[in-house]
Amino acid sequence: MNFKFNIPTLIIIVCISLTFTPLFYTIEQKGMELPQCVDEPLVTTTVHFFISQDAIKNRSITDVENQLNAAIKQSNRILANSCIPMRRQLGNIKGVDFSQYTLTSINQIDSILKRIVGQPLIQQIHTKPNHFYAVMLGKNDSYFDDEFCGEADVDANDRFFIISDDADEYTVEHELGHLAWAQHLDSSWFSNLEKRLKKYTSAENQHMLKPYARGYNCAGKGTVMSYEYDILPIYSSPDILYQGEACGDMKEADNARMVRDYARELRQKVADDENRSVLGVYSSKT
Length: 286
Fold this sequence. Notes:
- It is built from 7 helices and 13 strands.
- The protein is of the alpha/beta class.
- Strands 1-7-8-6-4-5 form a 6-stranded mixed sheet, with helices on both faces.
C-alpha cells in the first residue's frame, strides 16, 4: 500500500496487523431478505469524536456534526439489519490541533491526542465499557492517502479508531466492527489474513480471533467488513439473503454472530458497572 507518510518497511509490515478502510464505497439495500430478530435488550454505545483543526478548516463544526450523525444513523441501520442488540449514539465533539506533529501511526496519534486534551479525559472514556473515541483527520494532516479513510488497531486499543474527513457514512461502523473483532474478507487487500492476524495479535487476545469473523460477498455486493465497491448495510450472516444468495457462511463468514456476541458481553459489562456504581453509592451513604 502507498501511504502518504514515509515509514520504514518494517513498520509497513507490522501495520498489516492493523485494519484500514478504503474510500470507494456505495450503499445498496434492494433485494435483501432479513431474518426475524430475537427480541432482547439493546446496549447503547457512545462514540466521542476529536476533530482535527484541518478537518474543519473549510467548514463548520455543525457540518461535521451532521456528517457524524449520518454515520451513526447508518451504523444503527446496519446493526438492526444484522440482528445485533446494540445501538450507537454520538457523544461529545471536540476540536484538536495536530498541525505541530508529523503523524506516523494510529498509536502515535492516540498518544498525541492524550497529550493535547489531557490523559484524564481519555481515561474517563475508558472507565465506561460502552464508550469509544475517534479522531477525524483532514487532508493536510497527511496521514491517509487517496485509498484509505479509516483505521483501527483493536489489539492495542479496543476503544479507539481514526477516520478521514471525507470518509463515507459506513466507515464509522466498519471501524467499530473491528473494535468488536470483526474482520475483512481473507481474499481482499490482505492475503493470508488468518495467519497475519495470529502473528500480530498478542497472546492475551488470541481467543478473540474467530475463523467465522470475516466479511463476505453475495450476488456481487459486499458486506460491511469487505472491500467491495458496492456495500450492503449488513454484517456478513448466513441468515441474510441478497438476490437469493446467502450473505455469509456459518463457518467462514458470520461477522453478525461475532458482533452479536460482543454486544451481549458488553451489555453485561455495562450492567455490572452500573451495579458496582449503585453499591458504591449505597456503601458511602451507610
